[in-house]
Task: structure prediction
Amino acid sequence: MESKDLQAEIHPLKSEEGNAPGKGEANCAEKVGVLRTRGRLSSWRTAAFFLSLFLCLTVVFAFSFIIPCPVRPISQKTWNRTFDNTVAYQFLATRDVDRDSVQDVLFAFQASSGGDNSSGGLNSSCADEGFASPCAFLTALSGTDGRTLWQKPVAEEPLVVDCSVESDRSPGCLVVGKPGFVTVLDLNTGKNLWKQSADFGANATVLKPLLEVPDVDGDGAPDFLVLTATGKEIKSWFFSGKHGTLLGSQGSLSLPGWIGHLLQVTKKGAHYVLFCTANALYGYSVKELYHTAIGLESHRDLSLTEDPHWEVAIDSLSHTLPLLSSSEIHYLKKMPGKSGTNILVVRSAMLELLDGQHLGSVWASNIPHTLSEPVFGSYDRDTVDIVIESRVVPDRKKVMIVKGSSGDVDWETELLWGPGTPQAATLATVNHRSVFLFWGAHQEDANATKSEGTQQQHVLYLFHPSFTNVLLEMTSVQEPIVVFKAALLERSRHACYLLLTGPQAGGVPGQVVVSKRKLKEDIGGSRVIWLNRLAQDKEQNVRDHFLRMRYRSLG
Result:
C-alpha cells in the first residue's frame, strides 16, 4: 500500500493513466488549453509593457526637446541707470511689470524729455501727452538688468503716485496730478486705462496715501478715495475704480493740523479712516465719508458697514479716540499682529500700540525724540517688532528694536547721523527672523565721515539677531539719497537693496541714478564691527554666516 502511494507521488500522470485512461486524456487536453491561454496572456502583457514604455519615452521626448522649458531670467548682481538733467521724486516701488516672475522697479523723475545716457533708453517728451515742459515721467526698469520696460509722461506735477492698485481687476499705477486729473496706467504697458479730470481747487493739497475702498457704485471693481486739504478742511473724493467717474465730493471735515491718515478694516469687514493731527486721533467710517461726499443721509451701499466696537470707542460728537498721552503725534502706522492689524501711534515722547479691533491701548513705551517713521521686522522668531530711531544729541541717534508684544527694548546701538539719512529697512529670513538695515556712521568712523568734504557720507549697516554684538559695514554713499528700499526681486531669493540718488524735486536738475545691489555682494566685502569685545569670532566666519543666510517672501 505504501509503495503504491509512493509511486503515485513520483509519477502522478502515470498513476492516473494506469487507473483511468479516459480521464487522463481529458486532463491532458485541459492542461494544454490552459497553457495556450497563458501564452496569449503573456503576449498581451508583453505588448502592453512595450506600449507603455513607448508612451513614456514619447512624453519624455516631447517635454525634453519639443516643448520648450521656461527660461528663467538671469539677474545681474548689480546694475545702475543714470538720467541727466533731471530731479527725482520720493517715489520708488517694485512690481512685476513684464511678467517674468522678477520684481521690476518703478520710479518718477522730472525732466524736459525722457530717456537716459545709457543704451536702450526710450525717447519721449512732455508734449506727447500735452504737458508743459518740464514734466513728470513714470519709468519702469527691469529688475534683472535695469533696462527700460516703458516710460511715460504722467503729469506736469505728480501729487500722488501709487503702483499697487487694481483697476477693474487689472494691476495698475494710479496718478493724481496737475493740471487736476486722476488716471490709472496699465502696469504692464504704461498705457492709460482711464483718465478723468478733477478740480480739487487751486489751494488744495492732495494727501498721501490714496485709499482703495470697497465697491460703492456696484460696478464690480474697488473704488478710490482721494483726500484733499484746504486750510483746516479735509474733503473726500470718491472715484470709480473701473471708469474713473467722480462719485461724490460734497461736504468736508474740519481737522486742523493734519499729519497723516490710514485705512483700517475690522474683523467685521467695516472700513474706517483714521486721521491724526498733532494732538488728536480721529476716526470716521468710510460709510459716513461716502454719505457726506454724495450728499445723502442714506444710500443702498450694501458693501459699506460699521463696527459696533468702533462706534462705541469713537466719540460720537468729536470723532476723537482716547489716547494715553497728550504729547505731539509724529506718525501713525498699521502694525501686523497675531489677531489682526493693530495701530502704532508714534508720539514725541512715547510709542503707544492700539488694538486694531477694539481701539484699546495694548502698551505704551517711553521713547523720546523720534527721528523717522518706524519699520517692522522680527527680532525673535515669528514676532513683529519695531525698528525706531531716536535722537540722543544733535549729531547722534539711537537705533532701537522694540518688542512688539510689550514695548520693551530688545536691542539698541548708537550711530552718528545727519540730515538726509534714509530710514531703516528689514528683510525676512527663512529662520523667521529679520535682517535689519540702517544708515549712519559708527563712532570709530566719526572722524573719517566728517572729513569727506562738504557732502554728508551715508554708511549702510546690517544687523541680525544671531550676532547681537556685530554690525556689518556694507557700503557708503556720498550722493544725496532720495529713496532707499530693501527688496526680494525674486520670490524667496535675490535679496537686494535699491537706491535712488541725486537732486530732489524742487532743486537744481542734475544726475539722477537708480541702482540695484545684491545683498550678498556687499556682505562678501563688508567690514565686521564688534560692538563689544566679548565672545568674538573670526571675521570671515561671521561673513560666511551671513552669506549662507536665506531669505523669504512675506505674504
